[in-house]
Amino acid sequence: MSRPSASLHDLAHLDACRRRLAWRYALGMALGLCAVLLVGYLMHSALVKQSLKSELVQLAQREAEVHQPDLEAWVAGRRGPEDVTIGFRPHRTAFYYVLGPDSRLVHGNETRPSLRDEVLALLKSNALPRDQVVFEEILADEEGVLQLALLRHPVKDAEGRYLGSVYAATDVGGSLAHLEQLLVLLLLLALGFVVLAGLGGWWMADRSLQPLQQALRQQREFIASASHELRAPLTVMNTALALVEREGRERLDDFHHQTLVDARDEVRRLGRLAEALLLLARMDAGGLSLRRERLALGEVVDRQLRLRRPRIEAHRQSLTSHLAEGLRVVGDADLLARLVGAGLDNAADYTPSGGAISVSLLAEAGRARLEIADSGPGMSEQQCRRAFERFYRGDPSRQRHQGGAGLGLAIIDEVARQHGGEARLFSAPGEGTRLVVTLPLAP
Fold first, then answer.
1. What's the whole-number average pLDDT of the chain?
2. Which residue, of 153, 178, 208, is where some domain finishes?
3. pTM
4. Interatomic CA distance for residues 73 and 166, integer angstroms
5. Is there a contact between 9 and 173 (Cβ–Cβ < 8 Å)?
């Protein structure tokens, strides 16, 4: 099972949210702008091609009306090859040829006489569709490849007999080159829009998350201030209750004595909660200075086991341990002790009477691997994913004094990350829970 994702209070998670929002804003803006550019290009391209088609259709229809008598005479045999005339259209791009039903040239009006043989060979070998513009390329010796738009308009007599066709054509190299240049320009604009959209998306994401950042900052400040202010009165209350309990033991009846003990336990619990909140708040604010020292992790674990063994045995829970010797890490002994203690407390809180808790420490792939396993009720996959969130408790039905405040695993996760390590949970309903913490070994 992979490590649960950081909760919303985590600054790293907030930065990840900002990146995701920026990416989505940028993607949406870029797609919208690119779609506008693409639609504009397609519309412009369609208008250019429609204008070419209209020009060729008008030219073909006009020349069909003019040269229908010539085609009728050609079919009747009154005209022959010796009667063919070719006009010249200087300074124009559109030209036409009139071919009879036998695909022989009847009449023409051209702009480049040198291309006549190539164009006629193309017209005779290519059965163009009726009244549809097609684009073809021909090879001109002097100018290289030329691009032509061609349109075939059939000519019929009054009785519907096919007399021949008018082939209207125009050089579209300039128009297509214009479209290609426009496409390149639009691609460059799209690239610029993507960059601007990225910057705009980051700005919008940052503005969108500012209220959340402010709320989180105020929440941390409040928790830190409240925890700090609560420490002194809670200490005074705990001391006063302990003094009253000791001095008034003989003068209090059992009921009042038990009430006093319960009050003192609750004050201690509030004190531990304030300490945990203050620790997490200092970690969030970056105000926690770790003492980096080489220490034997086994000694830290063994001491926490000794401190908690009486409580565990009082609940008729068995505690076994296997600690490898000589495993040293670089870190803060107090924080690592809190990590181990929180893991043991969590296991003890959720292990029933008669259950078992086992602790192991060993070296694995250059890291120290601490495992705390219990025989408790276990957790579902969803609970494991949320277990490291603050104030999350896997079993809400348990009483607060039984299950803690839901900060133990959050502290374990934060301390492990402060030391360059990782904390993970492995569990399943009815199969207990294993907490695995890995820390880098000291060089």
1. 80
2. 208
3. 0.49
4. 16
5. no
